[in-house]
Prior knowledge:
This protein is an alpha/beta fold. The chain has nine helices and eight strands. The strands form two sheets. It has a six-stranded parallel sheet, sandwiched between helices. Strands 7-8 form a two-stranded parallel sheet. About 35% of the residues are buried.
Amino acid sequence: xxxxxxxxxxxxxxxxxxxxxxxxxxxxxxxxxxxxxxxxxxxxxxxxxxxxxxxxxxxxxxxxxxxxxxxxxxxxxxxxxxxxxxxxxxxxxxxxxxxxxxxxxxxxxxxxxxxxxxxxxxxxxxxxxxxxxxxxxxxxxxxxxxxxxxxxxxxxxxxxxxxxxxxxxxxxxxxxxxxxxxxxxxxxxxxxxxxxxxxxxxxxxxxxxxxxxxxxxxxxxxxxxxxxxxxxxxxxxxxxxxxxxx
Length: 246
């Protein structure tokens, strides 16, 4: 997937890639028969990608889906992949699901391995958010982090200078059942996928343009204008992914 992402990024000037193995797929390191060679192949991809590769990720821990990869294997290769971030001086796109504090502990222990990062699709508690922000990370918010009233209360408290907008397209859109849906102002023309026409959204499919809806919800929750949220989160995105130290 990382190789394909880089090939797409090289075709379009406004598309960028990350390199890494998702925690639920970390079994592929051992399955390869040579985990170190597998890691070296990822490093070679990151190097060959050049400026088209903007981060290592998404990597981390996912205890909701251990049927795909046990937690001890996830933890082992989470640490190994953080070394790629150190090697290439790249930020990290993190994945964290139901890890009972293990994710925060490991990030804290490995903090010297990476310069900064985004906790992708954040759905955690206010306490988790505050600890991760305190470690210098950014919170990535999409529709999955705006489902419940509790989610919305957490988003209210995220410092605007530590927040980035996401979609996780084609997943994690804002649905009418979400507690945040009343704050959405923009309505896109939609059609069922069987009746797709160019220029209209596909019903129930999240798309990149939906970052506007996330901005509208964040603005409503934090009592700010959409323009203010857009400017701040764009600046954050540029700082974390594109401000690469020499």
